[in-house]
Amino acid sequence: MHQVLSSTPEGIFTINVGPQHPATHGVLHLVITLNGETILKIEPHLGYIHRSIEKMCESLTYRQFIYVTSRMDYLSAHINNHACALCVEKGLQVEVPMRAQYIRVIMDELTRLASHELWWGAMAMDVGAFTPFFYAFRERETINEIMEETCGARLTMNYMVPGGVMADIHPQFQQKVKQFIAGYKNKIAEYNELVTGNVIFQNRMKGVGYLSTEDAISYGCSGPVARASGVACDVRKRYPYDVYAQVQFDEIIETTGDSFARYLVRIREMEQSVRIIEQLIDNIPEGDYQAKTKAVLKLPKGEFYQRVETARGELGVYIVSEGGTTPYRIKFRSPGFSNLSALNEMAKGGKIGDLVATMGTLDLVIPDIDR
Amino acid sequence: MLNTISFEAIKTAVQQWLNMHWGPHLAFIAECILIGLLVIVFFAVLGLLLVFMERKVSAVMQIRLGPNRVGPKGWLQTSADTLKLMLKEGLTPDGADKFLFNLAPFLIMIAAMLIMVPIAFARNFQIWDINIGVLYISSIASISVIAILMAGWSSNNKYALLGAMRSGAQIISYELSAGVAVITMVMLTQSLSIQDIILSQQNGWWIFKGHIPAIIAFIIFMIAATAETNRAPFDLAEAESELTAGFHTEYSGMKFALFFLAEYINVFIVCAVAAILFFGGWMPFHIGNWEGFNHIMDYIPSSIWFLGKTFCLIFLIMWFRWTFPRLRIDQLLNLEWKYLLPISLANLLLMTIIVVLKWYL
Amino acid sequence: MDNEALKASLLPLNANLTFEEGGEWVNVFVPYNELKPLLKTLQGEPDLYFNYLFCLTCVDWKTHLTMVYHLTSLKWQHNLVVKAVLNRENPQIETVCDIWKTAEFLEREVYELFGVEFLHHPDLRRLILTDDFKGWPLRKDFEDPVNMIKL
Amino acid sequence: MSIQQYIKNVFNAVKTLLKGMRVTGYYFFHPKEIITQQYPDNRATLKLADRFKGEVVMLHDENNEHACTGCTACELACPNGTIKIITQFDITPDGKKKKALNTFVYHLELCTMCNLCVEACPTGAITMAQNFEHSVYDRKQLTKILNKPGSKIRAGVE
């Protein structure tokens, strides 16, 4: 008979998860070394969706390059744009009007909600529950409609521009957001009933994919992944930008460091996002939505770094300027890239089912990793 | 009797006609062929119906509309899908063990078909009332695991192999608690024959008059049945977010459709068995000696009773599937060996006491 | 620690440090062969405690390459940018992935996009590009007539 | 694990499962909650947001006049080279040469709807339209000429 399945005498064999695999949410490729069902090693292979955005940005002007960044972490497109706009503003030393700052932060938090919604649905799907996906998309759809009305697009909005936002909010924006927020709290309760409390789900999540505090710091993890391991790293708290310094919200920190902690951090972060929006939505000050900037932006010679908190963690925009209209070198420090590098540490020794649960709670967006 | 056009009447008429015209031997052969054809047709219709039902149930639970384009209200959707699957090329991978690879889907269908034998669809309408009906069902049900292992191994695909191995561990362990739950009910009826079991529920179904042990046995049987049919939350053999499609990763076209069909047939069969054991099969809803009430209930045809009960249970299993996340393989085995098996054994003891003391009605 | 205090505490660590003025954070240049011990001290010293490497990248200045390490201390909340100049023909530098594990992936990325060779790196393979890819894409002189569209 | 704990565990587990089933059960018995939109069928009632960015169009008034001066600000603002403006020199009545638009070429296949050209336009000649059904059989059809044949610049627009 022909040879069936190559493996070593000890029964150790490798399988390829991805680039097309339901659990990788995109084109991530993991080479997994297995002993039976137990994972010995995970090696990520990246680059299936690498577009070299950094190189592209070198030939685009400071106004133009922002739209490309929506295509990195497409689930927090607003926040990516926000980071770039802030970085350019830092170089230009432009004061952004208060109205624009308020709008930006509300948009950021709506984006975060939408992103966490999608994560919640997709993660429930990873562990085998299909129905939550649709409930999550129902809420996400409402947010998208609000976005569409104000920004003109649903996913890659390109709404933030250096100096403010591209257009004023839609007249119905405030009313619609308030309506959404009012109904949304019940939805979180429903999510908890359907998924969080479920005994099967808790068993799948608890004690799985453990990441210690030291490792989280050493691997450069950020966002909910690091906060679930007890690292206080919320950029919104540590280095507040725009009006984040003025709003009241809690930095969610869990200390258990397992998948369930990461899950809880995100769920509770959704509540905090709601809280931020509630504080801001009624108090948007009157005024300009955009500061006066020159038609052609030129950054002074120097280096500018801006970090923001996306739904996945700390996004850094590093612009090296030679004084021209285009950046000399631009680097995006993407949260997913660092979080992914810790995957081997988390999933080692677990089962294949654990790997899926762990990857689900990492909330990987592959274009963000590959850029 | 009440039902002049019952299944029983049709069966008797056909039998008489055949015997009258063809003589006993030929009539027997003709009957066999007829039954075979009936079972195949029944399978096809059932498959289409259950797939459609699953899609609609899941859709409404997921705040969607579900299939609604092909035919009135989408009723022909599954037929269209079947047509598509038939037209698709049935690929056999190069590295596969071709004989086993092609055999496996048929084996799983044959196993499903064989279980059909002792199930009573209506009053006196049964292919063969074997006196060990329940035992026969439990033993034939285990054949499907061979087919799954065969499919997984012969595919020469690591995902398929992992899925098959999971499935093997799962089905073999859940057979135990399903078996014990069945034995609990056999204690009550004191017969293995399906006919006897149904008739013993003449004045009330076992779920109502069997006290707590019957209810516990029912719950355990439903859990074990869900596991045995490889359905969520126990669909580890397929677990599409982990193993893409598990043991049938490499199958396509009609061979894949057979696996798919077999899953639904198995769901139907386990639900039918549960309906027979706990809800009296085709037996109408009777309460003790309320003659009037029982009489009204008898007007509803027995086949409706049987199918109604079965489909309610199928709905329950579908409800499970669209609500719960999937278990992990070690948790799955934990659940069986640390929870279901001890509980069902204790339950069996309890039932024995009840039966010995004759506490049941 | 504010920028001035940080500068003051950095000075005794290495005699060859040069500071770059301007910018939000302290920018310090260090000879590439002395980078590793400096970073090790920066991470270990309890007063500095730069335990979080949040960005590691390289800039091609056409005449030379500059490695840029962005460090922060989650405990003291101060930031530092350490830079090292490499020659362009044969860029080599010690790996820092035994100090911060995140550097393993970041260095692999820099290796394949800039061609910087990290000495003693445990697994210096291409991460993003295909194994037979020629050239260092993020260098300024990289040309790819097929895939690069000049507007 | 004591026997009490064991029984408690089993009961709690069953309770959480039933809670989950209640949620899905609620939606099963309340089909009003269904949110599916049957897209191609609801074209008549489908209303897109006014700001929806579907494609770039040039505004023409009833006299077939537009406001484009051919200044190429949009061409410069576009990050993808979507817009190509071909200009010509008109002779004004007082005998001077004046730059004017000849053809406004718009490559829809390259456009990312970033709205930068509309922002850059000094005269408000172009805007975003709410059309999103762009699929065609030939890619060539996606290259559009936005100024209508015979159109000319509106008087007074500089």
TrEMBL record, chain A:
Which domain of life does this protein belong to?
Bacteria
Q: What is its EC number?
A: 7.1.1.-
This protein's record includes keyword Ligase: no
Describe the location of the NADH-quinone oxidoreductase subunit D domain by residue ranges.
126-295, 297-371
Gene3D superfamilies attached here?
Cytochrome-c3 Hydrogenase, chain B
Question: Recorded GO terms, molecular function?
Answer: NAD binding; NADH dehydrogenase (quinone) (non-electrogenic) activity; quinone binding
Q: According to its UniProt record, where is this protein located?
A: Cell membrane
Which of the seven top EC classes does this enzyme belong to? translocase
How this chain sits in the membrane, per its record, is: Peripheral membrane protein
Could you tell me what reaction this enzyme catalyses? a quinone + NADH + 5 H(+)(in) = a quinol + NAD(+) + 4 H(+)(out)
Cellular component GO terms held in the UniProt record = plasma membrane
State the UniProt keywords alphabetically: Cell membrane, Membrane, NAD, Quinone, Translocase, Transport
Summarizing the function annotation, the protein's role is: NDH-1 shuttles electrons from NADH, via FMN and iron-sulfur (Fe-S) centers, to quinones in the respiratory chain. The immediate electron acceptor for the enzyme in this species is believed to be a menaquinone. Couples the redox reaction to proton translocation (for every two electrons transferred, four hydrogen ions are translocated across the cytoplasmic membrane), and thus conserves the redox energy in a proton gradient.
Family statement drawn from the similarity comment of this UniProt entry: Belongs to the complex I 49 kDa subunit family.
Sorted alphabetically, which HAMAP family does this protein's record hold?
A: NDH1_NuoD
Assembly description: NDH-1 is composed of 14 different subunits. Subunits NuoB, C, D, E, F, and G constitute the peripheral sector of the complex.
- What protein am I looking at? NADH-quinone oxidoreductase subunit D
UniProtKB/TrEMBL annotation, chain B:
Tell me how this protein assembles. NDH-1 is composed of 14 different subunits. Subunits NuoA, H, J, K, L, M, N constitute the membrane sector of the complex.
This protein's membrane topology, according to the annotation, is: Multi-pass membrane protein
The gene behind this protein is nuoH
Compartments reported by the entry: Cell membrane; Membrane
Q: Briefly state the protein's biological role.
A: NDH-1 shuttles electrons from NADH, via FMN and iron-sulfur (Fe-S) centers, to quinones in the respiratory chain. The immediate electron acceptor for the enzyme in this species is believed to be ubiquinone. Couples the redox reaction to proton translocation (for every two electrons transferred, four hydrogen ions are translocated across the cytoplasmic membrane), and thus conserves the redox energy in a proton gradient. This subunit may bind ubiquinone.
Q: What class of enzyme is it?
A: translocase
Give the catalysed reaction(s), semicolon-separated.
Answer: a quinone + NADH + 5 H(+)(in) = a quinol + NAD(+) + 4 H(+)(out)
Q: Which UniProt keywords apply?
A: Cell membrane, Membrane, NAD, Quinone, Translocase, Transmembrane, Transmembrane helix, Ubiquinone
The root-end lineage is: Bacteria, Pseudomonadati, Bacteroidota, Chitinophagia, Chitinophagales
Say yes or no: keyword Phosphoprotein present.
Answer: no
Q: Which GO biological-process labels does this protein carry?
A: aerobic respiration
Give the primary localization class: membrane
Q: Which InterPro entries match?
A: NADH_UbQ_OxRdtase_su1/FPO, NADH_UbQ_OxRdtase_su1_CS
Q: What is the top-level taxon of the source organism?
A: Bacteria
Q: Where are the transmembrane segments?
A: 26-52, 99-121, 133-153, 174-194, 206-227, 256-279, 299-319, 339-360
Q: Name one GO cellular component term.
A: plasma membrane
Q: What is this protein called?
A: NADH-quinone oxidoreductase subunit H
The EC number(s) given in the record are: 7.1.1.-
**One GO MF term attached to the UniProt entry:** oxidoreductase activity, acting on NAD(P)H, quinone or similar compound as acceptor
Which family does the UniProt entry place this protein in? Belongs to the complex I subunit 1 family.
UniProtKB/TrEMBL annotation, chain C:
Q: What class of enzyme is it?
A: translocase
Record's keyword annotation contains Translocase: yes
Keywords for this protein: NAD, Quinone, Translocase, Transport
Q: Which Pfam families match?
A: Complex1_30kDa (PF00329)
What InterPro entries does the database record attribute to this sequence?
Answer: NADH_quin_OxRdtase_su_C/D-like, NADH_UbQ_OxRdtase_30kDa_su, NADH_UbQ_OxRdtase_CS
Annotated ranges, domain NADH:ubiquinone oxidoreductase 30kDa subunit:
30-143
EC number(s) reported in the record? 7.1.1.-
Q: Which reaction does it catalyse?
A: a quinone + NADH + 5 H(+)(in) = a quinol + NAD(+) + 4 H(+)(out)
Q: Name one GO molecular function term.
A: quinone binding
Superkingdom of source: Bacteria
Q: Which residues form a coiled coil?
A: none
In the record, the note on similarity to other proteins reads: Belongs to the complex I 30 kDa subunit family.
Q: What does this protein do?
A: NDH-1 shuttles electrons from NADH, via FMN and iron-sulfur (Fe-S) centers, to quinones in the respiratory chain.
Name of the featured protein: NADH-quinone oxidoreductase
What species is this protein from? Hydrotalea sandarakina
The beginning of the lineage is:
Bacteria, Pseudomonadati, Bacteroidota, Chitinophagia, Chitinophagales
TrEMBL record, chain D:
**UniProt-listed Pfam families:** Fer4_7
Domain 4Fe-4S ferredoxin-type stretches: 59-88, 102-131
Q: Does the keyword Zinc apply?
A: no
Q: Has the keyword 4Fe-4S been applied to this entry?
A: yes
A single GO molecular function term of this UniProt record? metal ion binding
Q: Which domain of life is it from?
A: Bacteria
UniProt cross-references to InterPro entries, sorted A to Z:
4Fe4S_Fe-S-bd, 4Fe4S_Fe_S_CS, NADH_quinone_OxRdtase_chainI
Key words of the record: 4Fe-4S, Cell membrane, Iron, Iron-sulfur, Membrane, Metal-binding, NAD, Quinone, Repeat, Translocase, Ubiquinone
Q: Which GO terms describe its cellular component?
A: membrane
Q: Show the stretches that span the lipid bilayer.
A: none
What PANTHER family does this protein's entry cite? NADH DEHYDROGENASE UBIQUINONE IRON-SULFUR PROTEIN 8, MITOCHONDRIAL, NADH-QUINONE OXIDOREDUCTASE SUBUNIT I 2
What name appears for this protein in its UniProt entry? NADH-quinone oxidoreductase subunit I
Can you name the source organism? Hydrotalea sandarakina
